[in-house]
Amino acid sequence: MENFFDIIGKISAWLWGPPLIIVLAGTGLYLTFLLGFIQFRHPLYIFKQTIGSVFSKKKPKGEGTVTPLQALTSALSSTIGAANIVGVPAAIMFGGPGAVFWMWFIALIGMALKFSESVLAVRYREKNEKGEFVGGPMYYMRNGLNMKWLGVWFAFALMIELIPSVMVQGNSVAATVEESFNVNGLITGLIMAFIVVLIVFGGIKRIGRVTEVFVPFMALFYVGAALVIMFMNLDAIPEFFSLVLGHAFQPMSAMGGFAGAAIAETIRWGFARGLYSNEAGLGTAPIAHAAAKTDHPVRQGLWAIVGIVIDTLIVCTATAFVVLSSGVWTAEDALDDPSALTTEAFSQYFGSFGGILVTVSLIFFVLSTIIVIVFYGAKQAEFLFGWKTAQAIKIVYVAAIVLGSVGAAKTIWQFLDLALAAILIPNIIAVLLLSKEVRRLTKEFFTSDEYYLKDIGKAKKDKKIS
Which residues, 6 or more positions from 142, have their beta carbon under 8 angstroms from its beta carbon? Predict the structure, then answer.
């Protein structure tokens, strides 16, 4: 049996090495060129239409179930998780500081992919029997490509994959709480399950209301602490960029506990951790974006671009800066437990409070991830079997949290990467087949008097008035 798990582990490691990295990077680059570098062309406009509109008193235009901000924070709840705290130091230890550059690179080209997924999710969404807007890869596969079988494959694979995924997430919270506060795993699991039930059974509206408050607070708490460290060490900023940029294109020699890394490993670890963190191409975030109130699919696609900025360019970079500037990655025993490096780095700056800060952040990041992936799983069941089955599968996921918290997931975590590949491949196929529709909608949005030109016209008029 052990040999079987070893084989599964090796297949997963190979698959998430060059094959899938080439597929994702290639798709991201193709869409970046096809859409005329959408993520770089209108930075100020994108900011004004997304984060800039949060403080506006005007209500979002168009139909939808939740506000665009609630859709974004729901999607961010899934992506801002353990990968941001423990995944980044792992990339640094196995790929060197240059891996951070490749994390940024894959984030920048991944924006075109995530933009495309979210545009398609809104374009082909529909209303369920409760009058809520539902969408995502399974809907654009059925409604856009007329390939229901591909949608069934995606929905079934994601629905099943999320059971061990929830167990692993539950286990990571329970283990962290037990280690830090000496609380039994079962008690932690039951408390988590209770919180998830309260929120998830309220549907996307309740999830949106919770994440709208929860996610900004959670991210600001963690990133704010990293910014304090940055201002304490302003002289470390040039050194940070020197380390990251200097080793992005040349091998990193061994030092301290770091074993050294070839350039191929640097790129592989940067890409893999970046993709794990922002989920571009997996097709999960579009399920949240599909419920947003919007007058055009492209407008919501702009929010998806901002999601990657927050998740990878801000939160992951904050972790990288703290880890690299503290020097903990060069310690003799650093390679023994890379996931502990973030805690050690914050503790070096803030003492015991630093360790508590990372622990609390990790607990909240992972709990918010569980809440949203349970919602994602329920949406797959709804697509396959209807609304009532979706409620039943939520109970299965809640039970999985408790099982995971007492260590039941340890034998199945090897299957997670394989299951993720089974979701990613059909989604990439669908996005590529529908890429011309994304281009048509993008062109329509930026050339029509109803959308971009009207927004720009308003801005010019407002300037004249003021």
Answer: 124, 148, 151
